[in-house]
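Subject: Interface between my chains keeps coming out wrong

I've been trying for a while to get a sensible model of this assembly. When I model each chain on its own everything looks fine, but I need the whole thing in one frame so I can look at the contacts. Pasting all components below, labels as-is. Any help appreciated, I'm running out of ideas.
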Amino acid sequence: MSALFSCSNLTKRLEKRDSRAEDKGQTFTLKDVSFDIEAGEIIGLIGRNGCGKTTLIRTILGLYGLNGERDKGRLELAGYKSRSDQKEYRKNLGYVMIDNPFNNYVIPVQIGETYGCFYDGFSMDGYTKRLDEYGIYSGRKLYSGRKSKSNDMEELSEGEKLKVQLAFALSYDNRLMVMDEPTGNLDVDFREDFYEEIRRYVEDEQHSVLISSHIIEELEMIADKILWIGRRDSADEREGYVRFYGTQDELKMQYRMVEAEQSIIDMVDGSMIVWREVGENYAKALVRVTDRPLPEAVAKHSRFADLKEIFCFSEKEEMA
Amino acid sequence: MTGFKEAIREYVLKRKYNRIFLVFTVLSFFVISVSWYYYPIAIIAYSGMSIILIVPSAPIEYMLPLSEEELRKKYINMVTCKQIKIMVYMAVAIVVGCIIDREGFGNVWRTYPEYMMMLTGMLVFFAFFTNISTMGDNLFYKNGSGLVSRFKEDKVNFVGNIGMFLCFLSIGRYYLHLDRVIHGTYETYNIDMIIMLASGVLLITGIVGVLRRKTIKDYIGVNSIF
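Reply #2:
Try treating it as a single job with all components included. I did that and got this:
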């Protein structure tokens, strides 16, 4: 059975003069990204700042085109290609972004009134009902006589803007929900409801979610697979690449956390050590075990590393 | 998304040309005041300005599920709408300017109250419903919500439109009697200068405000086009 979403050999280059490049002095290239998402899956997208997570998401959503000389790749969703079937491709996308994509000078209900028509199956009632459930005033509908006080999007908090986006995205028929750091600004009590919405969205195994987040613990709870974008820096170019794509178990099988005396850790081949910390009376190390296993004397002091440890210590060592 | 980018490039000038048109627009204020023969130049300049101002202001505009053809039609409609508005403003303002010039500023309402009310209503209509902004798309798409007030969401553009109208009004006043500005009586000089200064300030405010909105780096779509 073919995947719901397919990204094949995607390369997207942002030139130096382009103000979107996070460091205007560098050219950034998201290089050769390939991954598939099956229906019903939740994919956690991780990577350090500047690695290209947002570039990938914006390219999938169509905010960035693949028009440059060095841009290439294929994006396909539910059988529709992003270039030749642009309209149908985009209709099947839902999105929640940390940067509000809607106009700031409108009230939430006007977003539904203006943009809902572009999406199949959009329900204005469903949208306003969700807004009310999320604690956002649904707003004054100008021509129906229904009145309630509402603020412009500009006056809402960042968390409230995310809730408006979520309400909009869940109000029409889409197959893939793409989320760029949606939970950072959400209040704690809504965060659980947010993840519950995601679980409900995928439980029929017809929909999928791609969610990027810096809150690794939350991704560890919810994600079926992890897409880890790595970053390589050179003098005038920065590159993002797929460092890992697979299930959490597959990733965790590649690493061990060793906590023991320094003499024990010294038994490990230096090339296997990803990160090490030595204190007065202790030592810790993150060890990669894909090539060969740990010595037995070390193994009994080791455990599986969790996702946060793998990500944080790997990235920390690279940045050092 | 190749077609989208090509559509924008086809109907929206690149930024360096936007700057050229802006300079040309400012210069046309001066040349048209010399002689009404330069009126066609002003129309071309302001049409160019209308193209400058159609760049969408929110990323959602670049993510909508539209085919290439629909995108092209959308932006053609926006440009046409803006051009019609500018031409109506110019025509009305020049006519009003001539009436004021002939009747005197204080007499125009007394002499032609019904015409002034009609013209004012037309201008308000165009100001509210043909501003270039995201909600302007409602005019061209059947979404069942009807027209949405844009005053609140587009304050800067609205201010700019008032300034634009007053500028044209000034032009209507001046092009027949430029000598009044230079050598006019004290009373006429004050009224003309107040109108000119006020309109200039409002227009510049509107232009700068709109241009700043369109080029704010947050609105990534702008930079991804060019």
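Reply #3:
Confirming on my end. Residues 5-248 of chain A form a domain with the Rossmann fold fold (CATH 3.40.50.300).
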